[in-house]
UniProtKB/TrEMBL annotation:
Function: Cytokine with immunoregulatory activity. May promote the transition between innate and adaptive immunity. Induces the production of IgG(1) and IgG(3) in B-cells. Implicated in the generation and maintenance of T follicular helper (Tfh) cells and the formation of germinal-centers. Together with IL6, control the early generation of Tfh cells and are critical for an effective antibody response to acute viral infection. May play a role in proliferation and maturation of natural killer (NK) cells in synergy with IL15.
Intracellular or extracellular location(s): Secreted
Any one Gene Ontology BP term: immune response
GO cellular component term of the entry, any: extracellular space
InterPro entries tied to this protein: 4_helix_cytokine-like_core, IL-15/IL-21_fam
Keyword Disulfide bond: yes
Protein name: Interleukin
Similarity remark: Belongs to the IL-15/IL-21 family.
């Protein structure tokens, strides 16, 4: 009977942990899709170069995401045929909000300016990094819970 209760507790904890962060991960995956749409519709020649944060440290990820979001508003459509798609995609991008996870010493202007497609590639890479980090934390929390259950069961 004890084993059955422990098994049920393990199942409950692991299923709860797996559903805790998916909304956040899904949101970042939608952001990644939005960036991919922008990459196919953005003008890359004769345009303003954009400050492009690359490889931000953990405390600066929020600042980097915000820089990318504000920088993306300066992008221009490649031609008039993609203008409506481009505008709609930028509206979608504006809706995303990022949670501040720390303080950062650098500012957006401290980063090198790059062409729009390079800017968007760096933005996509950062979003992928955030997705991987959030996925790892979910698994870590599940393992902590399982470990705690086993420790409690022994005593």
């Amino acid at each position: 009977m004890e084993r059955m209760i422990i098994l049920c507790m393990l199942f409950f904890c692991s299923s709860t942990g797996l559903t805790a962060a998916p909304h956040k991960i899904v949101t970042y995956k939608q952001l990644l899709k939005t960036i991919n749409v922008l990459q196919t519709t953005v003008k890359d020649t004769d345009v303003e170069l954009l400050h492009t944060p690359e490889n931000p440290v953990d405390g600066c990820i929020f600042m980097a995401l915000t820089c990318f979001q504000h920088g993306a508003l300066k992008l221009q459509p490649e031609n008039s045929q993609v203008n409506s798609t481009f505008i709609q995609t930028l509206k979608t991008l504006k809706k995303f909000t990022f949670r501040n996870t720390g303080t950062c010493e650098s500012s957006c202007e401290s980063h090198e300016k790059k062409k729009p497609k390079v800017f968007l590639t760096s933005f996509a890479n950062l979003v992928r990094k955030v997705i991987r980090a959030d996925s790892c934390w979910v698994l870590f929390n599940i393992l902590q819970t399982i470990t705690a259950i086993f420790i409690l069961h022994r005593f």
